[in-house]
Design brief:
This protein is mainly beta. Helices cover 6% and strands 70% of the residues. It has an eight-stranded antiparallel β-barrel with strand order 1-2-3-5-6-7-8-9. A hairpin with a 5-residue loop joins strand 4 (73-78) and strand 5.
């Protein structure tokens, strides 16, 4: 009887019910930088794993607000000439409006639109040289994405999402002649607890 009652609660309560929530995700960030150095085009992509904490409040079944905090991480790579490149992506923090689209009683799509503050650090080391100066870029701008929540238990959701955290030009003056274009996207998934 208890299992039937619990099953009934899961089936009848929307995945995006009104109230507060908090969650933790694993996120892969893809940080793409495109710019020129001495007339030579550079297109570099860095992929790093991160922990994301999120929390928010559903004011209604259709609208809420969400805050995200993402840890920093870095990737080091070498090119064919032996130059070593290092990019640190994060930390990232963002505040979003959240629109919900229910899919029956136990799942829902959602969209996020807001502002994110993104920190990056970039530097290089030539084959026989020392590390160059660290160029740090701080960017605050539009961020957006979409995802899917699925109810796993009465107060637990599983989720997957795709986010864009940064689009625009960056400032790494020691390494790029111009201000390179930088786009940071993320694919994540994890668990959310409803309160």
């Amino acid at each position: 009887m208890f299992m039937a009652l619990a099953g009934g609660l899961i089936a009848t309560a929307p995945a995006n019910a009104q109230g507060a929530y908090a969650g933790v995700d694993l996120v892969t960030l893809m940080n793409k930088v495109s710019g020129t150095t001495g007339g030579v085009q550079h297109d570099e992509t860095y992929s790093t794993g991160h922990l994301r904490l999120k929390g928010g409040y559903h004011f209604t079944e259709m609208f809420g607000i969400e805050v995200q905090l993402i840890s920093g991480n870095r990737q080091t790579k070498n090119d064919s000439s032996g130059t070593t490149f290092r990019m640190t992506t994060g930390p990232i923090s963002g505040v979003y409006g959240r629109i919900e689209i229910p899919l029956g009683d136990s799942a829902g799509l959602y969209g996020l639109l807001g502002i994110a503050s993104v920190s990056t650090e970039y530097y290089r080391k030539p084959t026989l040289g020392a590390w160059g100066p660290v160029n740090r870029d701080e960017h605050r701008g539009l961020s957006f994405g979409f995802g899917l929540d699925v109810r796993l238990a009465e107060r637990v959701l599983g989720s997957v999402d795709f986010m864009v955290y940064r689009v625009g030009s960056a400032s790494y003056p020691a390494y790029f002649t111009d201000k390179p274009d930088q786009v940071i996207r993320g694919i994540g998934g994890g668990l959310t607890l409803l309160f």
